[in-house]
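Lecture notes, unit on protein representations.

Consider one protein chain, 242 amino acids long.
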Amino acid sequence: MIFVMPDLASPVFWAALWKIIIANIILSGDNAVVIAMACHKLSDKYRNPAMIFGSAGAIVLRIVFCAVIVYLLSVPYLKLVGGALLLWIGVKLVVEEEDEANIKAHENVWAAIWTIIVADAVMSLDNAIAIAAAAKDDFVLIVIGLAISIPIIIVGAALIAKLLDRFPWLGLVGAALIGWIAGEVIAGDGKNREVINPGTIAAWLDVHVPHAEYVCAAAGAVFVIALGLLLARLAERKSSET
């Protein structure tokens, strides 16, 4: 990774910076969904701070990932663990969407921030490759580009949160998307760009499961919705009995 001060008068610098911003915004559509789902049940007083701090923490982690992405993608089973964690986040969000209990907002601000950071961390492993490539491994460019992207992503998340307020059923669609991404992450364990390392989960799936990435993604979406709704129903039944 290169650490040099940029030439602000250079057209090359501005062209590269624009590429990073656009790439990050495009790749962060699913992250905006997570941010919105984690925060939309908070009151207006707590929603915006949770979005800001959660997004800022996620961007800091993304910068770190860009700096050490080659090492991270070589760690065995890292994506498997991350994908499993993302599945559980999706399930929890389904349960929360189905829960109509009046929960105090301030008690869930830090939970929302933590959900945003963890989910974004898992989903940003592959995104970091594209960002680092757009910056040609220029670390200063990466930091500036991602920092500029923060308010744009937060605005997108705020709009999605408003839609979730108006159309609650969209929460299940968002949770299914998280499950889909989790399945893709798990299927990609051991795959670096288009190169599949032998003896990995990705290698096994490539041999035994046709269109493995789509199969795992669909399975992840179904798993999140099915388990989330089941847990929500069990919790509802338990509360009605007490």
